[in-house]
Amino acid sequence: MITVKDHIYTMTTRDTSYVLSTPDGKNIENLHYGKRINRAPLTADTGKIAGAERAELTDTADIMTDGKTVQALKEKYNNPYGNAIQSTGNMTLDNICLEFSNAGTGDYRILPLILRREDGCISTRFYFADSVLYEGLYKDRDRTGMPYAREGEPSSDTGRPYTLEMIYRNKAEGESGDDKALELRLIYTAFEDCDVITRRTVLINDTSVTYVIEDIASMMLDLHGTDYVLKTFDGMWTRERHAHDKVLESGIYETGSVHGISSNVHNPFIMLSDIDATEDHGDCYAFNLIYSGNHRERVEVSEYGKVRILTGINPQGFEYRLKPGETFYTPEAVMTYSDKGFNGASQNMHRFVTGHIIPDNFRRSLRPVLINNWEATYFDFNRRKLLNLAKDAARLGIELFVLDDGWFGIRNDDTTSLGDWSVNEKKLGGSLKSLVDEIKALGLKFGIWVEPEMISKKSKLYEAHPDWAVSVPGMEDYLGRNQYNLDYTLPEVRDYIVGILSKLLKSADISYVKWDMNRPFTDLYSKGGTYPGEFAHRYVLGLYDVMKRLTDAFPHVLFEGCSAGGSRFDLGILSFMPQIWTSDDTDANERMMIQGGTSYGYPPSTMGAHVSASPNHQTLRETTLETRFDVASMGVLGYELDLTRLSHMERKIISEQVKFYKAHRELLQTGVFTRVYDRHDRVIWQIADDEGDHAVALLYRRSSEPNKSDDILFAKGLKEDALYKVRVKESKIPVKTFGNLINMVSPVHIKEEGVMQAMIGKAYAMDGEVEEYTVSGAALMYAGIRLNSRFIGTGLGEGTRVMGDHSARLYTIDKIG
Ligand code: DGJ
Fold first, then answer.
1. Could you write out the DSSP letters of every residue in 698-749?
2. Angle 632-637-638 (CA atoms, 0-180°, nearest 5)?
3. Catalytic residue of the set 94, 222, 283, 516
4. What is the mean pLDDT of residues 59-68?
5. Alpha carbon distance 427, 386 (integer Å)
């Protein structure tokens, strides 16, 4: 809900308020963004705002407009500040929470807009002129060329989104020589159901001269206070989105990407929390961008005790020429606030992603369990190998077979053929359709890998169109994985890709596409004439054009984004592709960091998570099959290992895993994810239904600490007075876990790592502990279940929990009364 009265603009979501006023008629002051203040939250009993109560909101919002509360919230300017520059009266723009700030007005903080006039002047005088308020999304959203937050499903509890446009005009005397002006619009849309407000900036050139945009933020937010912690999500290939904290002090903090993609180095999702905030308590703001290209997030702690946050396109290499009559749209930025710590803000973002980002037709659809042949075969496969893999997958209950890289052109390694999307029938032993039909006859769906934004130097496409490859003529080329980026700024390139992929998708019954993108950009240059300063942004617009055309034409195909693992995990991609391959690193221990970091901004249903071989192909770390599954089940489950070489025991374990996942799939893929505990080398995550009746919890041990604390299982968000049955998921303990200790119980000597140990291990494994408890919600949440002892070198009883380094357990939690 948004209300406008007496120049007070109040945006209200379920638990937050965002209040603006115009102190001098020229600038917009942010009076408050945070916990809801214009009415006590209506969440006490139901967590929802009932329809009738919503209708009252317009009136209750008037608490803000009775003048008294507003007067109390306004910044006071009793005295001029030393050598500060003055605006109206004693007002100093450098010391006020603004929504937009002009260059050249004495606000020396980081600025949201650097706009160069023909004569080189960068000062602007955008003054607030007008506002427009309407129900629904931003009216010009389809002109932006970028994905935007969707309206979502109407609900009786919360209303439709509302949009507010705050209109500023720059009409400096003598500037354009006529009465036309530049116009700047700040667009706000309030999504009541998930406590999210989105923002974007729109710049309209209604003058007769060209302006150059050197830097334009999607949003600027000023808050009071300086005691904040900035949480960013950073990494590298196979180490994506690890959470890092920076305690802010006076100064400017910056994160972002100049890779041409959102990148695995710094994700556009950031959090700003109170210094004392925990997972469940304290003020926490979170920000993201619906964009897949170069981005930048900046935070300045000012000398006046305020903090400014800017997010948007990264200005490095960016220079947009805004010609007369043209409009520039920034990507849509996303903000949320919660007073319930990091989990509160994460859960708001999760609801927003599920309800307003991923394609409508995938919002409720459950994702299939897949087998991907990449780590099973790499490039070395033929029809027989693929079919054997598919047969085993079908026997184990897996639902979708994904054929990864190497099926086209002459691609038997990564040096050739990208761009030549014609089937290698020799390698596949026949047409793609015949293979797909055979795999479908086994009861599996079929999916295929593509990398459509690339061109190999060794390819027919490169021979025909060297000018489609992104490089600068006359300069040395820098290749990544032997390939160039394709120039998606050119319409003919986009038409070619849409055409050839449409043909592929029509050629057989393909239900899933893995869309890979393996090299970041280096040169920002088009041989087709795209202005270099606009190249990076126009590439992203071109990418969205291609993705939109293909996903509109094939709405039932499930697309999974991928970029050398998780190099492009962002809301832009999720707007077309409901899940993304989280990382090439499938080691369970590393995944706890990667999936854990990713969970701050994105729900489990967006994270592709596969069980792969041990030792792991990225880290060479050994973990049990049970542990690998337990961690992967906290995302969208898949398998990526050679199933044909599994032992009898491993098959049995996997088939039980798939059964377990399917039985709990709806909960795992649509439930509320909570980080419950992370201390003493022990991590607990939980996914529960909205009502708090059912949950699955993961307990992960980073290391085995002998004779230290025993494990305690906690939960969150359950019903205090209800009774729950808590059960550990059945598990198996491989014989080799015990090394030569096995000889303490074996009647014959078994040599460690010997043939006999291997033979026994293939057919036999010990049963893991059986633990079952009946416990009240309050006891489970506030006291915790003291689980059976862990194996610590003495004795092994029936209930002993054998958990070494990097080991996990799953627990089901079900309300029984
Ligand atoms: C990188 C991806 O992340 C992998 O999963 C795999 O698809 C390879 N590319 C194939 O080249």
1. EEEESS--TTSPPPEE---S--TTSEEEEEEPP-EEEGGGGGGGGGGT-SS-
2. 105
3. 516
4. 58
5. 11
Q: List, for residues 618-669, the tens digit of each pLDDT value.
A: 999 999 999 999 999 999 999 999 999 999 999 999 999 999 999 999 999 9
Ligand 1: residue whose CA is nearest its atom 1: 564
Residue 523 annotated to the active site: no
Average pLDDT over residues 515-532: 97
Does residue 615 have a cis peptide bond before it, meaning omega lies within 30 degrees of 0?
yes
**Annotated catalytic residue 767:** no
CA atoms of 165 and 290, how far apart (whole Å): 19
Where is average pLDDT lowest: 166-180, 274-288, 568-582, 770-784? 166-180
Output the pLDDT for position 180: 65
Using one digit for the tens of pLDDT, what is the confidence trace for 121-167?
999 999 999 999 999 999 999 999 999 999 998 776 778 999 999 99
pLDDT at 350 over 60: yes
565 alpha carbon – ligand 1 mean position (Å): 7
Q: How far apart are CA 741 and CA 736, in angstroms?
A: 9
Q: Are 16 and 34 in contact (CB under 8 A)?
A: yes
Q: How many CA atoms are closer than 13 Å to the CA of 791, on its beta-carbon side?
A: 19
Ligand 1 pocket check for 518: Cβ under 6 Å: yes
How far does the chain reach from its first CA to its final CA, in angstroms?
38
In the reported structure, the alpha carbon of residue 583 is separated from the centroid of ligand 1 by a whole-number distance in angstroms of: 10
Classified as helix, coil or strand, 200 is strand
pLDDT reported for residue 131: 95
Of 392, 523, 584, 711, the active-site residue reads: 584
Which own/partner contact pairs does 528-532 have at CB distance under 8 Å and 24+ positions apart?
528/467, 528/487, 528/489, 528/490, 530/487, 530/489, 530/490, 531/319, 531/321, 532/317, 532/319
| Location of structure tokens 């049995």 | 652
Closest CA to 295 of 540, 75, 561: 540
- Tell me the whole-structure pTM to 2 decimals: 0.95
Q: Tokens 């509302």 belong to which residue?
A: 162
CA of 268 to the centre of ligand 1 (A): 23
Does 447 contact ligand 1 (Cβ within 6 A)? no
